[in-house]
Amino acid sequence: MGELGLIEQIRSRFSARGRGVALGIGDDCAILRPPAGHEVLVTTDFSLENRHFRRELHPAKSVGHRCLVRGLSDLTAMGATPVAAFLSLALPGDFLKARKGQRWVAGFFEGLHLLAEQSGTTLAGGDTSESPADLIFADIVLIGSAPRGRSLRRSGARAGDEIYVTGALGGAHAELSALLGLGRAARAGAAGHPHLYPEPRLGVGAELMRRGMATAAIDLSDGVSTDLAHLCEASGVGAEVEEGAIPLHPLTKRLGRKKALDAALNGGEDYELLFTARAGARVPGRIAGVAITRIGTIRKRNARVPRVVIRGAAGEVRELMPAGWQHFSS
Amino acid sequence: MGELGLIEQIRSRFSARGRGVALGIGDDCAILRPPAGHEVLVTTDFSLENRHFRRELHPAKSVGHRCLVRGLSDLTAMGATPVAAFLSLALPGDFLKARKGQRWVAGFFEGLHLLAEQSGTTLAGGDTSESPADLIFADIVLIGSAPRGRSLRRSGARAGDEIYVTGALGGAHAELSALLGLGRAARAGAAGHPHLYPEPRLGVGAELMRRGMATAAIDLSDGVSTDLAHLCEASGVGAEVEEGAIPLHPLTKRLGRKKALDAALNGGEDYELLFTARAGARVPGRIAGVAITRIGTIRKRNARVPRVVIRGAAGEVRELMPAGWQHFSS
Q1: What was the ipTM of the complex prediction?
Q2: What is the pLDDT of residue A94?
Q3: Residue B150 in contact with partner chain A when CB distance is under 8 A
Q4: Cβ contacts of A324 on chain B, cutoff 8 Å
Q5: Residues A175, A291 within the same domain
Q6: Please, which residues 107-126 of chain B have a Cβ atom closer than 8 Å to chain A?
Q7: Do B176 and B270 belong together in one domain?
């Protein structure tokens, strides 16, 4: 199967032309037609073997799912509706000649396809290449739309706003730890697979935008400590998080309290949303079926105090250092 | 310099907010606002070390230029105006710690920046990562816009239409051959650097769309033989090319007539445009300052004749096999 064979397989699988896609795979460009009066939101994410996934550890289906979830979560954090995805995929030279490689590609597209269908995203194009190394590289672009001027941003938080998160935190890190220990995925229990198959909070983002309830929002891809710092920087404010308020994912229980909290604050890849709302806003306990938990308060920026602090059970306050994963850091 | 340092460098360099970009680097997504009544065109292209460029052969500035030119050329072929680019860039782990790596990154962004400025493209986001190999990987997304329903497509050619190309062909292949022979770039002469610094035909594509003159169009990234076959397939037609009409790039002269023709038909990466127009259309000899040459005619598809044929000087007709570069082919 050459490159054209692969493109043909992708095209036939994703041929249904979705809402907002006037021309998909097969010309020099794809053509999108977002609703009139909408602005266009764009985000891109690498999925590089041995950096974002391991072939022996992650099922191909999970790699396809995770590849798409990162961009969907970014769109969601801004309240946008997904329109189209564009996938660039480089595979090792002999990969498609062997049954194993063909199975991998089939599994990858199965994971991608299921989540694309669930989220109303059309795979509308991309690029393919032979990889220059024995490694799989993917890069995905997600394009969404939102009514003009209504997209949620990181920069709208003001002192006094309350800080909320969706769902529970630390599950992705806890499942990854177990995965690294076992060398394979555990069976799916009630706690699900927050690392292998995280769920993007599509309904929540859209609802927050519709209700005009959030003053700022960001998705938790790097962890609360890092992502809340990003939101505070963009808004020119500080924040105080309450340790006891952090909703811990059931999978973190086996880690013990200290490590569970670390997973929740710094683990990253939970793909929950963090948002702020005015102090008086009536934020419901659930939005689109997902639990909403208040975890702290936005403070006026004070140069003598760390930008983001956390208040422990005994009332002591310490700095919450951004400790999420940073590429290129030494 | 960590990832944030690199992002900061990119952001400061490209901070000017361009036409159509409401929010650039620094949030979960970028926000684009194409003109009212426009549709959105999207194309993505890999630039992988040892596959699309070689670090010892291509100046970093050329890699940055070529990275952007591929998508610009795709937009141009559909008559679209560039709006924004999104760059995903993975660099080897220690790359930014050494002077050499820092110089490479600076050169890469210089090449990208110059062409972005010339073409009115804003770098509005992307992703960065440590490369999992000692190789540089880039993937770029280009987003443009065109009045709704006016984009040029591959599928509009009809029997009797004439086939045209812009500029001259084979120059990119000829310069690459010289580059591989010398191990370094020759000095720029009047013939320019069609391989290292190809010029996207932005003005031509926009003008063809504005005048409604082209029935179909494609950019010559893989070579006439492959790209004309794509256009014919999409249009459900055949084509006859006249060998003597092919405009040969001055750099092909040293190759001899046979190899020069081969470079022009199969070499690829010239990033000229190929388009079709009704037989009676008054197609000028130059559009936006670029020479336009008629090279053949669209024919009715006949299953007993090869889809694309070429007529030699003596009038003999032979099949023009798609011989452009295909990834994954054995």
Answers
A1: 0.90
A2: 87
A3: no
A4: none
A5: yes
A6: 124-126
A7: yes
Q: Judge if B139 and B204 occupy the same domain.
A: no
For B:259-318, CB contacts with A below 8 A are none
For A98, the domain range is 3-147
Last residue of a domain, one of B99, B114, B147: B147
Contact A133, A40 (CB under 8 A): no
- Domain assignment of residue B329, yes or no: no
Contact residues, chain B, for A30 at CB < 8 Å: 41-43
Question: What CATH number has the domain bearing residue B167?
Answer: 3.90.650.10
Task: Give the pLDDT confidence score for residue B164 in this predicted structure.
Answer: 98
User: Is B172 within the bounds of a domain?
Assistant: yes
For testing contact with chain A, the best of B25, B55, B72, B139 (most A CBs within 10 A): B139
Mean pLDDT by groups of 10 residues along chain A of 330 residues: 64 71 87 94 95 93 97 96 95 89 92 94 90 95 96 96 98 92 74 93 94 96 96 97 97 93 94 97 96 98 94 94 57
Do the Cβ atoms of B48 and A129 come within 8 Å?
Answer: yes
Question: By 3-state DSSP, what share of chain A in percent is helix, strand and coil, each rounded to 5?
Answer: 35, 30, 40
Angstrom distance (rounded) from CA B282 to CA B287: 12
Closest in A32, A46, A88 to B129, CB measured: A46
Q: Does A155 touch chain B (CB under 8 A)?
A: yes
pTM, entire model: 0.92
Q: Are residues B120 and B159 in the same domain?
A: no
Show the tokens assigned to A56. 């022996």
Distance CA A285, CA A283 (A): 7
pLDDT digits 0-9 by tens, B169-197: 999 999 999 988 887 776 767 778 999 99
What residues form DSSP beta bridges with A328?
none
Contact A78 B2 (CB under 8 A): no
| H-state helical runs in chain B | 3-13, 60-77, 99-119, 171-182, 202-211, 224-235, 257-266
In a domain, A135, yes or no: yes
Confidence of residue B330 (pLDDT cuts 50, 70, 90): very low
CATH of residue A119's domain is 3.30.1330.10
Same domain, B224 and B315: yes
